[in-house]
Amino acid sequence: MGAKLRVVRRRIRSVQSTMKITRAMELIAASRIVKAQERVFQARPYADLLTAAMEDVARQTGSLVHPLLEEREQPQRAGVLVMTSDRGLAGSYNANVLKRLDGLVERIRRDGMDPVMYASGKKAIGYFRFRGIPVETSWSGFSEVPRYDAAAEIGERLIGDFRERRIDELHTVYTDFRSAFTFRATDKRFLPIAPEEVSGSAERAPQAEYIFEPEPAAILDELLPQYLITKIFFALLESAASENAARQRAMAAATDNAEELIKVLTRQANRARQDEITTEIMEIVGGAEALAQATSE
User: Fold this and answer.
1) How many Å apart are CA 168 and CA 152, to the nearest integer?
2) Using CA atoms, how far apart are residues 237 and 143, in angstroms rounded to an integer?
3) Count of Cβ atoms closer than 10 Å to residue 92 Cβ
4) How many domains does the chain have?
5) Residue 56, domain extent
6) Residue 67, H or E segment
């Protein structure tokens, strides 16, 4: 009986230690959600001004013509950039992204194209390695706190592959962050860039007249790649916020489960202790009765 009690108490101490870890991870994830949201808000003015600049070029020239806007007649290969986390313990966050990826790959194949994989995050890299799926390029080490230079590296590689016709389209699978309680895996086509994204049909006042130096085509050569890199950076930021929100939720659930388990184990320990005390009392009473009988004889 004493051995059983020691085992239960050891399990209680183990669960309590685990609960401290999950509680700490929950608090860390909660603080990172706020920082990730702030980074999204801080980056948005740059994206708005970049889009406005391209709208000005389109309005003054009457049209947008650029290789990154080119819709190819018979696309053969579709690039797929998958954004997952570098670490686990985030509930169903990565599973939802990979499930969305499977659906996208099916659609691409139905359209008669071959998917070409690009992975961001160790979980995506491990997923492809486990299934023996070839990956063109992979990146990792920044899923929780994305860097703009990492987005630039990813964007430059994808733009280069699109220009060289290694891929004819580019789709990105990531997690769209709305709030700490609402985020969902989604996929969007990033290349070719839809002209309506940057043409700007709304009237803005005042509309200034520009003299372009260099020519509009040269300006687009600079603006459109930056526009794509900015979209990738935003996707990374939203994925980071979603990852931390999912981790906070998972760790909060783990902490609650640990508390419930401690209550159950405590009841087991109390019951074992009561059984131990009862056994000891019975042994004492039995010994006393035996001694009394021996004395009376």
Assistant:
1) 20
2) 8
3) 12
4) 1
5) 29-250
6) none
